[in-house]
Structure formats: C-alpha cells, structure tokens
Write a structure and sequence with these properties.
Length: 321
C-alpha cells in the first residue's frame, strides 16, 4: 500500500511540476489547436469526395450537356478585315469603289461601262501584276450563305460575318465551298476569273463589303476589326445616294425648265415691244394732230395780222393824200 501511495504521490508531484512550468499551458493550447484544425480539414476533404461521387453530370448547367447549340465565336469580332489575296503586295486595284462624296475624277474612274451604260462600282476589282489567276481567300471568318453560278458577274460567293454584314466575291471560278460551310479567315474560297460585266478588268476578283445591303468602301476597313463596321451608320450613306440620284434627275429636268422660262421671257419681251410700238405710234399720231391743230390757228393769226397791217397802210396813205 505504501508503495502504491508513493507512486501516486510521485506522479502527482511530477504533473504539478510540469504544469508549474511557464511553457506548459501555451504548449497545450497549440497542440489542441493543431488537433482541431486537422480534424476540420479532414472533414472537409471527406465531404468533397462525397459530393463528387454524387454529382449529377446530366445537369443543364454543364457546358455541352443537353444542348446542341454551337458556341459563339467571340474571337471573330477581334479579327481584322484583310484583302482576299495571299500576297497583298502583288495585288493591283483595277477599279476603285465609287464614292458618292468623292471627287469627279475619282468617280469617273470608278464607273463600269456595260451594255452602253455606265454603272457605279460597288466594290473593288483586284488583280495581280502579271494578270494570272490566283487564290481568292476569305477576308474574315464567317458562314457561307450564297454560292451561285452567274455568267454575267462571273459567279458569286457570299459570306456572312454578323447580322447584316456580309462580304461578296464575284468573278471567281473553281469554287471550293458550299452554302452552310463555316470558313476561317485566309481559307481558299475559289480562283480569280473573268466576268462579262467588267471584261476590261481581265482576270480579277470583285470584292464587296456590305452592311444592311449597303455597299461600303473595302479600302476603308482593311486592317480594321469587325466592330468598326458595326459602329458605322449606313443610313446616311443610303440617303446620300438617293439624294444624288434625285439631283441628277433635277439636273436633267432643269434645262427644259430653263428653256420654258426663256421662251416665256421672250414672249413677254415681244409683247412689251409690240405694246411700246403701239404706244409710240399713238404718241406720233397725237403729236401730228396737235401740230395740225396748232398750225392752222397760227396761220389764221398770221393772216389776221397781215390784213390789219394792210388796212393801217391804206389809212396812212389816205391821210397823206
């Protein structure tokens, strides 16, 4: 019994000595915090593993699940329009875009003569210096919406890039795309060819950029993003074209109006001349009548004066006698 009591007393005394040390309580606190933190981390890890096992991969918020809609290409708006040729340095602009606000010389050079009529060029005609055929490339990524064989225009390919914004490639042969194809920028669409509409251009490609059906000058948008064209207001340009047409019609009608005005003026002048002649004739007659009336009176007075003088002379002679 005494030995057990001695052991207990020795254990109690050692515990008391340990607790009496300055670092005992901080050490206990740190150890307890470490144990609690380890338990929390272990619990979170086990919950995540459980959630992963029970995850519903058929949920509608997972990309590509239960939806077959194509993803939106956000990089297309970042692309810049480029010339539809592989080597722009070797390209030659055969005919420029017809700008209604341009100079008269530039407008004249941008007219296409076909069927005895001049037509404004709605795009640019691109050829090479050697006059040989070349690959026609997509100026911007998009979806092919038209592929038509046209003997007058030399076949047509149309690519849509955004709502209302398209590019057209005319005077092409050996077309490599079909309607509905998705094309990337720089992809070969066809080969440059010829057209009846612009025979003098030879082997070339007629390239157009249109917004809401209104053609714009491609040279103004090369090396510029699609967003620059989205910000363009083509309504003013369409109004300018309509006003230009109305001005031409007015100019054609103006000569006839001027002619009518001149004829009317001449008629009025002739009438006024006749009236002047009549007035002059009337004045002449009045003057003549006035002179005629005055002259007889004067003559009578002169005759009266002569008779008086004769009588006076006769009386004088009588007195003298």
């Amino acid at each position: 019994m005494r030995e057990e009591e001695k052991k207990r007393s020795s254990q109690d005394s050692s515990f008391k000595r340990f607790m009496n040390k300055r670092w005992a309580f901080p050490a206990i606190y740190i150890a307890s915090a470490a144990i609690i933190l380890t338990g929390v981390l272990w619990y979170q890890t086990s919950d995540n593993a459980t959630d992963t096992d029970s995850y519903d991969y058929e949920a509608t918020d997972i990309t590509g699940k239960k939806y077959d809609e194509p993803a939106l290409e956000v990089n297309r708006a970042m692309e810049n329009f480029v010339m539809p040729v592989k080597d722009p340095d070797s390209a030659v602009i055969q005919k420029q875009f017809y700008d209604y606000d341009g100079k008269a010389e530039e407008q004249e050079a941008a007219l296409v003569f076909y069927n005895n009529t001049y037509h404004p060029n709605t795009g640019i005609d691109i050829a090479t210096k050697d006059g040989e055929t070349f690959d026609v490339l997509a100026a911007l990524s998009g979806k092919v919406t038209k592929v038509e064989e046209d003997s007058l225009l030399g076949n047509v390919i149309e690519v849509e890039h955004d709502k209302g914004i398209v590019t057209q490639y005319q005077s092409v042969t050996e077309m490599n795309v079909e309607v509905g194809d998705q094309v990337e920028q720089g992809e070969v669409l066809a080969k440059a060819g010829e057209s009846l509409f612009n025979e003098e251009a030879g082997v070339h490609v007629h390239f157009e950029i249109r917004k809401d059906g209104t053609p714009v000058n491609p040279l103004d948008f090369f090396n510029k993003p699609l967003s620059s064209l989205l910000e363009l207001d083509t309504a003013d340009k369409a109004d300018a074209e309509e006003n230009s047409g109305a001005t031409e019609e007015n100019d054609e009608a103006a000569p006839s109006e001027d002619k009518s005005s001149e004829e009317s003026g001449n008629t009025e002048d002739e009438g006024s001349a006749e009236e002047s002649a009549d007035e002059n004739a009337g004045n002449t007659e009045e003057d003549e009548s006035a002179d005629t009336e005055e002259d007889p009176a004067g003559t009578s007075e002169d005759e009266g004066q002569t008779d008086d003088q004769v009588e006076e002379d006769t009386a004088t002679e009588s007195t003298d006698a």
